[in-house]
Design goal:
mainly alpha, 65% helix
């Protein structure tokens, strides 16, 4: 694979669909599954993306508004996936664990900013996700 960095990146970042769909099934002692079935495909799309930039993740959230509506559940699933990758006894995958942790952190930040804005109660002309993406492009104070 000398010189084929994109091929190696795809191979190293591969996650089977079963790892995401696992969270759509109700586990014992749970009232409901951690992830609704209609979100599984969208979460898989985020997990399989090579670009973990906050702006790119924000654009994916803009494309899939149902993810933004259920951001708390999606963030929790990514945190669980990160822990699962890191604590696997047979094959610890630190790279995937870090990737899931970064995605969880980005979604957690979106959730925090969204809640902060909902508390203010002001109605803005531009959608929340567009303003969040712009804040990521401009930087923070």
């Amino acid at each position: 694979f000398v010189g084929n960095h994109s091929c190696v990146a795809v191979i190293n970042n591969f996650v089977s669909k079963d790892e995401v769909w696992f969270y759509t099934k109700k586990q014992p002692l749970e009232a409901e599954p951690k992830l609704p079935l209609d979100l599984a495909k969208s979460v898989y799309k985020i997990v399989m993306s090579m670009n973990t930039s906050p702006v790119r993740v924000g654009l994916m959230l803009k494309e899939e508004p149902k993810l933004l509506d259920n951001i708390k559940k999606v963030s929790k699933v990514l945190e669980l996936m990160s822990d699962r990758q890191f604590k696997d006894r047979h094959d610890v995958n630190e790279i995937l664990s870090l990737k899931f942790h970064i995605l969880h952190y980005i979604l957690h930040d979106v959730q925090k900013e969204k809640e902060k804005e909902e508390k203010k109660g002001e109605e803005k002309k531009t959608p929340f996700i567009d303003r969040w993406i712009k804040s990521m492009l401009l930087g923070r104070e």
